[in-house]
């Protein structure tokens, strides 16, 4: 009887460990995805600022980068 109880405890512990590992794996995956998105956004903002500083008008930047004009103006005026 005790062996069955201990087996159940071990099985439960193993299930918890697998759940934790899966949670960590998913967390890392989501973190990488968010990091890539943030990097792209920051890169685009940097490009907008450089284009503006080189003399390009916000309307031109909007057309070239296919980005909403209001977003361009907001980034420029930060």
- Evaluate the radius of gyration: 25 Å
Number of helices: 3
The residue ranges in which pLDDT falls below 50 over 5 or more consecutive positions are: none
- Helical percentage: over 70%
What number of structural domains do the residues give? Answer: 1
Mean pLDDT, all residues: 93
* CA-CA gap between termini: 70 Å
* Derived structural class: mainly alpha
| DSSP, total strands | 0
**Anisotropy-based shape:** rod-shaped
- Kindly estimate the percentage of residues that lie in beta strands according to DSSP: under 5%
Main sheet, how many strands, which sense, barrel?
none
Order of helices and strands: HHH
Can you put this structure into words, describing what you see?
The chain has helices at 2-53, 58-65, 69-76. The chain is mainly alpha-helical. The model has no long low-confidence stretch (mean pLDDT 93).
Keywords:
rod-shaped, 78 residues, single chain, 0% strand, mainly alpha
Characterize this entry briefly.
With 78 residues, this protein is mainly alpha-helical. It has helices at 2-53, 58-65, 69-76.
Task: Itemize the secondary structure elements and their pairings.
Blueprint lengths: L1 H52 L4 H8 L3 H8 L2
Organism: Methanobrevibacter millerae
Protein name: Transposase
């Amino acid at each position: 009887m005790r062996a069955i109880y201990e087996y159940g405890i071990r099985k439960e512990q193993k299930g918890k460990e697998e759940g934790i590992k899966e949670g960590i794996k998913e967390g890392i995956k989501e973190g990488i995805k968010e990091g890539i998105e943030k990097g792209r956004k920051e890169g685009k903002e940097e490009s907008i600022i450089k284009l503006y500083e080189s003399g390009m008008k916000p309307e031109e930047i909007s057309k070239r980068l296919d980005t909403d004009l209001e977003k361009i103006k907001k980034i420029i005026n930060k």
